[in-house]
Amino acid sequence: MLLVGGYAAGQEPTDFLELQGEKVPLAINSSRIGVLSREDATFEKVREFADGRGYKIADQLPGGLYILDIGRTHERAELVQVPRTLRREGGELIAQAGIVGTAPGIENPLIITDDLIVQFRPELSGERIRDLFAENSVSIVEASIYSANQFVLRVDETSKADALQISARFQSMNDLVEFAHPDFITVVEPRELLPNDPLFGHQWHLRNTAQGMGEEDADIDASLAWDMERGAAATTIAIIDFGFEITHPDLQPNVVSGWDFVQNDNDPSGPDIASGSRHGTAVAGVAAARGNNATGVAGSCPQCSLMLLRIGASSAASTVAAAIGYAESHGAAVISNSWSYPAAPALVNALNSAATSGRAGLGSVVLLAMRNSHVDDCSSSRLPSLDSVISVGRSTNRDLIDDLAPFGTCLDLLAPTAWLSTISSGRGTLWITSTDMLGTAGYNTNDILAPCPELVSPPANALDYTRCFIGTSSSTPLTAGVAGLVLTASPGLTRLEVQHLLQDTADKIEDSVGVYSPGNGRSAPSSGPPSHGWGRLNAFEAVRVAASAAQGGRAGVDLFLRDNRLDWGNTEQPSNTQFEAPRGTIGHWESMDIKVDAPPYQTAPTAATFENFPDETPSAVSGDVNRVYVRIRNRGPEEAATATVKLHWAQFGTALPPLPADFWTQFPADSTDTSQWHPLNCAGSSGTTCTVANLAYSGSSVAMTSGDAARIVQFDFPAPAVDPALSNHFCLLAMVDSPQDRISQASTASFFVDGITPNDNNVTHRNYVNLPMMRSFVERLLVRNPFDRPIRTELRVTAPADWEVSIDSFGVGKPFELKPLEQVPVSLTIGNAFGRGVVTLSQEELEGEKTTLIGGLSLRFRPE
After folding, report:
1. Choice among 183, 241, 402, 597 that is catalytic
2. Could you tell me which residues belong to the region Disordered (predicted)?
3. How far is CA 458 from CA 247, 276, 447, 528, 595, in A?
4. 57 and 171, same domain (yes or no)
5. What pLDDT, on the 0 to 100 scale, is given for residue 8?
């Protein structure tokens, strides 16, 4: 049964919000209340207040908004009295309280207080308006000073009605009222911070909108990260380079200290026209040019401090080591090095010391640029080979590596930039925009004969900026700035924890070349050296894990279940996004974290053996009990004290059936409707939840190593009765929930499984089957409409070349219509199949020119 805003399909919902002329159904939670605390109220005070009344904090949202679990369910008239009592008794602690509603398409809960907004028609007299107030038991809270006849009203506490119901009354008075709705409270969701720096639109590496024919989102999602964190003066990024324009108006506000190790003074400028000075100026700008100051550009950490340390373009090892030691001893949180040098022992010692002893023993985050040539830069004689540093390569504005990119086993991360051949090779189309020497002394001479790569247009100070900075000299400080954001959000992280976080949250771009390992997510092609490290830097994902809940982050705990081999927990883009140019899709139904063991049983898997554990088709023999193992990971540096895991099965098909009407209101208990989604018992118990305690860090950086702390729980899956019209294949749906990392509000407001899974890393499903190789094969399965509305849809198939695949009833690539919640048995026939291969059947909804993936399944053929 499908829910619409919390109401069963076919049932007329009684509560609506009218938004832009659309009636949006609203589901009211009968056992929860929302409270908005006053600004000086602490979490401990709110918890004490709730505990004193037998309530528990179910969720904490930004801005002092709390969701309280009040225990048993309440009838509506009784429910509305609870927040009224809390307001009276809360005194100086509680600013507002109300009932809790969720609506489709609105991510966060809506707190419906006793206040409502009514806009009366302009011709209505004051006397008539006052009569309406009395008739509906409301009083004036505030009259708008901007809109005549608009009022914030409050429902009398003696009223059995609430603001939602009284709003509906006013809204029905079409001849008297223009609009009326509850003055609900919800989280204000800033999607991204777009700074007012005039050249920000050219900084595709921070925010790529496909400008200059690039690939949209081939960037680090900096503007999304800045919603949570923009850095702070207390976080210092040391730039070791060959000279700097320290009076540059986009650098000077962030410069706090520096030293010239050539001239041995505190002025790291260097000669005005030295090529090294323009290099260092551009490097510093990429990392920490002042942002949102209506000037030029923004760095990736726009409010971090800059420590500028000058070495010579030709320097002794002792000089370079001294600069590194200076950065360590003067409190640099991050040390960025956009240069290459042999691995002299003095430098190795200095780098290792900074990484282990910097920041009072937490370690400075040290970044080194890989070389700008197509060579393996990871021999022991090269500094990037050190375990104590983060080695940075490069990717383009099309999310590709260029044909001269460096490679090797020590390559940790890619970050957006370009190289001389990027444009001519077609692998990218733009270079990097950053700060430059003032006037014509830098890269930007505005020479019409040698534009760089193009003439710079206004603003008036355009000569102070360049649009042709390139190489790992740019990608390295870009990554350094993101490390600065992470450490500002969570200053107590160790150097290694920051490195893990940057690696674990990288986007897996260009898998067709990088070939990321299914076991740990690192580039591992079967032939040739690794070329992509852990993937392309993603500032938003890294900062979100580190940032506090008040900032909109995960507070160091991010549990995740993997939807496919490229998924390691990122949700800024759905998990079924394949980061190629152009973008593609990969099935979100191929979970890497659910495995089946049919009788006779194998030895139970551990974190170390799970990856290679045999994955079988569930037995359908009556009396058999299949074992299902679910692996849970935590890519945050903080331990999850407790987590709850649930597992359900449903019949194999394309789009999966909707969750039952009371699924989320009962969760983590079971729905009363188990006709399509069947809960499974945790092994060794009669309960349908498994509990995991103390889940430590277990991100991709440590996957399949001795440090992998992933946890595995076991469920019992008794052989289900087989429908003779269908094949003995099933979908398994897993969920993990923790007080420190809840299943998202967007998910719990939805019942569309194939929409939840790719967008919530707490949910995954396995909708595939492993089969022995055979020349011909017929699979019976269900094609579904998961919505309570008719849809126009079609099926698509991918299969090895020369395999013959057909589907009766609907065919392949042919549009057809399905009635609301309709499910139709079909036969998928495969012929001429030789060898190992995978057949994928996906279902898309067609709405005009728009196509939306709404489900899919995979058949994997392999030798027995």
Report:
1. 241
2. 512-533
3. 21, 26, 15, 46, 59
4. yes
5. 32
Tokens of 459: 């603003």
Determine the Cα angle at 703 with ends 702 and 706, to 5°.
65
Structural domain total, the chain: 4
Q: What is the pTM of this model?
A: 0.81
241 in the same domain as 155: no
Tell me which of 473, 523, 531, 671 is the catalytic residue.
Answer: 473
The answer to whether 280 and 329 have CB atoms below 8 angstroms apart is no
Residues 402 and 495 both lie in one domain = yes
- Largest pairwise CA distance in the chain: 88
Q: Contacts from 798-803 at CB under 8 Å and sequence distance 24+?
A: 798/838, 798/839, 798/840, 798/842, 799/830, 799/837, 799/838, 799/839, 799/840, 800/833, 800/835, 800/837, 800/838, 802/832, 802/834, 803/830, 803/831, 803/832, 803/833, 803/834, 803/837, 803/839
- 475 annotated active-site: no
**Judging by DSSP bridges, how do beta strands 681-682 and 690-695 pair with one another?**
unpaired
Domain boundary among the residues 189, 210, 237 is at 189
The alpha helices in 367-471, defined as continuous H runs, are 422-425
Please, are residues 743 and 541 in contact by the beta-carbon 8 Å criterion?
Answer: no
Q: Domain for residue 811, yes or no?
A: yes
What are the helix (H) ranges across 172-293?
A: 222-225, 275-288
Q: Would you mind telling me the total number of residues written for the chain in this entry?
A: 864
- pLDDT, one tens digit per residue, over 308-330 is 999 988 888 899 999 999 999 99
How, if at all, do strands 365-369 and 334-337 pair?
parallel
Give me the sign of the Cα torsion angle 756, 757, 758, 760. Answer: positive
Look up residue 238 and give its two tokens: 């040391």
Query: What's the CATH code of the domain at 815?
Result: 2.60.40.2310
Q: For residue 794, what are its two tokens?
A: 């079609």
Write out 58-119 in H/E/C secondary structure: EEEECCCEEEEECCCCCCHHHHCHHHHHHHHHHCCCEEEEEEEEECCCCCCCEEECCEEEEE
Which token pair is 509? 């771009």
CA separation for the pair 432, 352 (Å, rounded): 31
Element containing residue 434 per DSSP (H, E): strand 432-435
- Interatomic CA distance for residues 562 and 632, integer angstroms: 9
Q: Is 183 a catalytic residue?
A: no
How far is 697 from 554, CA to CA, in rounded Å? 14
What confidence tens digit (pLDDT) does each residue in 82-113 have? 999 999 998 789 989 999 998 887 778 999 99
523 with 575, same domain: the answer is no
Six token digits for residue 429: 């189309």
Sign of CA dihedral 283, 287, 291, 293: negative
Token reading at 440:
């014509």
What's the domain range around 127?
1-189
How many other CB atoms are there within 10 angstroms of residue 492's CB atom? 11
Q: pLDDT, tens digit, for every residue of 214-224?
A: 999 999 999 99
* Active-site position among 74, 181, 279, 532: 279
Q: How far apart are CA 542 and CA 751, in angstroms?
A: 29
Of 430, 520, 12, 523, which is closest to residue 215 (Cα–Cα)?
430
Beta carbons within 8 Å of 491's beta carbon, 6+ residues apart:
234, 235, 333
- The reply to whether 279 belongs to the active site is yes
Same structural domain for residues 782 and 833? yes
